[in-house]
Sequence to fold (515 residues):
Amino acid sequence: MSVKDSLETLKKIGSELIRISQISALLGWDQETYMPREGIDDRASQQALLSGWQHERLTDPKIGKALEDLGVDIEVKRLELSQFISIPGLSEEDRAFVREMTRNYRREKKLPKSLVEEFAKETSISQSKWVEARERSDFEIFAPHLERVLKIEMEMAELIGYESEPYDALLDAYEPWMTTKELVNVFDRFETALKNLVDRIVDSSKEINDSFLYKRYNVRKQEAFGRELLEAMGFDFDKGRLDVSAHPFTTTIGFSDVRLTTRYSENNLKDAIFGIIHEGGHGLYELGFSENLRGNILAEGASMGIHESQSRLWENIIGRSYGFWSAFYPKLTEYFEDALRRVTLEDFYRAVNIVRPSLIRVMADEVTYNLHILVRFKIERALLNREISVNELPRVWNNEYEYLLGVRPSNDAEGVLQDIHWSLGYIGYFPTYSLGNLYSAQFYMKMREDIEDLDEEIERGNLRPVLGWLRENIHRYGKIYPAGELCKHVTGEPLNPQYFMDYLEKKYSEIYSLN
Ligand code: MG
Fold:
């Protein structure tokens, strides 16, 4: 086949894959928002059918043939980015497209259908066992199922292949092209610094009052305020929605149809507001891909870490800044006149930035959050390297919490059972949350360099320059650049955790009067 024909074949399959994943996303969104409880059995079969189609399309021999005709060595032991730079006659975008088709094809082809099905079955059982185990705070209920899921994942890692340890193969699904070694290198550089900063904050014994955040806040008003924030961020409600679900998420149904969800609690003002800003950041990324990527598999985030950098940049760096609340706090006090009557802007800013080592990851502040991730990463890696076994998990978990955060869970529910991820088979996913924090600080540093009056614009409530910069430098590229390349392209250097540490140091030295 000619280059043109091969490319056309791949594009056709690629656009079908997009359609299948959009349909599946719509079913998933409906399941989490409006589907009646008893719809679940049919929904599960509908999703299983789509997964089957997806696997079939992903392993279509036509893909292999077209890639070979383009001169791609699909049998090579380890894919290198440089392999794709040398394909003649292709634009940068088409080279990236071929690269992603190759990655997907190779990965999927190595996994036998029976193993993929077994994985789907075991994870759906283990998820329900995890729910039960957490309710009863009894790890023993979950352990045998986690054992099975882990065994399948280890088998998958061996089939997929890896550079130096099995974790590489799993990490690659969420953070393509990054190796465990690189990750360890990055995390090592900030673990000690982070731990020191947390110790200094705790030792400062500065008391910040945040009790007013837990008064009664009318849920409808929270939603109205949240929608105002999304509009200020530039979220277009003609291309998206905001609904309610048990666990907040963002999902993409179409190129111009992105759904956000959040959850409201009457006794917690922080949860919904920062959750909405966070999902808004994900949503803006999904709506920001360049128009010519419509229907292309490149219309996707560069990696999970880069995706998370977009949500965290909005939620934390912008959304928890003094400048942001200088603009939006007056509005918030209009909604909640009584509850916030005696609360100054200064009080509010400090309260939403309180640092408190705690047991539960999803409630953690932006400083200690990363320590929660380090615990999980160390444990996952040790499990895959067979250094620890599943039945040791509660003890190892508690010891790590005591060591890194200075707090010790008193039961499994607030310890090893708190996250759903492992029950779904998402081993290798957690590190992307921390990578998101690190990338966000590095991007923001560059944004400030590029936009001279950025701080003043934010204080005025004008967030358009922020979105404009993100669109121009990050969003429009979609998956054209791998995460590491994108970072270099945007900031001129590889991922450097120092930017995040500098950001935390500056912000929290001021809040906690550290010296
Ligand atoms: Mg997120």
Q: What stands out?
A: The domain at 180-512 is CATH 1.10.1370.30 (Neurolysin; domain 3). The longest helix spans residues 3-33. The longest strand covers residues 257-262. The mean pLDDT is 95.
